[in-house]
Design goal:
This protein has 167 residues and is of the alpha/beta class. The chain has one domain (10-161): 3-Layer(aba) Sandwich (Molybdenum Cofactor Biosythetic Enzyme, Chain A). It has six helices and six strands. The chain has helices at residues 18-21, 29-39, 54-67, 87-94, 101-111, 139-161; strands at 10-16, 43-50, 72-76, 97-98, 124-127, 130-135. It has a six-stranded mixed beta sheet with strand order 2-1-3-6-5-4, sandwiched between helices. The radius of gyration is 15 Å and the shape is globular.
Length: 167
């Protein structure tokens, strides 16, 4: 942790978007996630845009957690009902342990704004020493959802990264 009590861990942002990965749409969600993480003290060391393809999402998540050893990996996009929205399935497939409280908290806060928040299929979990958190794709929903959990994410990463954590 930094002197101000904010996180000082590495982070990655994976934008999941067919059009974004093809260069047909500007990525507005990824830069917002990055800005919010940096404001909280995370060092965003890697960003990437991948299509809504489960193998590519899984490969990006594994790369961030295994090869790059990034503490917090946030995805944006692919959490809805469209047949191409497979980010939660990719996340569950690569995680060793799920962390249901994170998406539950995001949906809880989202329900205060719109009843459609219950339709979000976001997931969160742990792979090795990395925490993976799915976020929606729209900037408004990103802002609301990430703000709901961001203050606690640093503590979660701190527990994951501690050599020895005293229960």
């Amino acid at each position: 942790m930094t002197a101000g009590g904010k996180a000082s861990y590495t982070a990655a942002v994976i934008t999941v978007s067919d059009k974004g990965s093809a260069g047909l749409r500007e990525d507005t969600g990824g830069p917002l996630v990055r800005a919010m993480l940096e404001e909280e003290g995370f060092a965003v060391v890697y960003t990437v845009i991948v299509p809504d393809e489960r193998p590519e999402i899984e490969a990006a998540l594994k790369d961030c957690a295994d090869a790059r050893d990034i503490a917090l990996v946030c995805t944006t996009g692919g959490t809805g009902f469209s047949p191409r929205d497979v980010t939660p399935e990719a996340t569950a497939a690569v995680c060793e342990r799920l962390v249901p409280g994170i998406p539950e908290a995001m949906r809880y806060e989202g329900l205060k704004v719109t009843n459609r928040a219950m339709l979000s299929r976001m997931a969160a979990g742990i792979r090795g020493r990395s925490l993976i958190v799915n976020l929606p794709g729209s900037p408004k929903a990103i802002r609301e959802n990430l703000a709901a959990v961001l203050p606690a994410l640093g503590h979660g990463v701190e527990m994951l990264r501690a050599e020895q954590y005293d229960h």
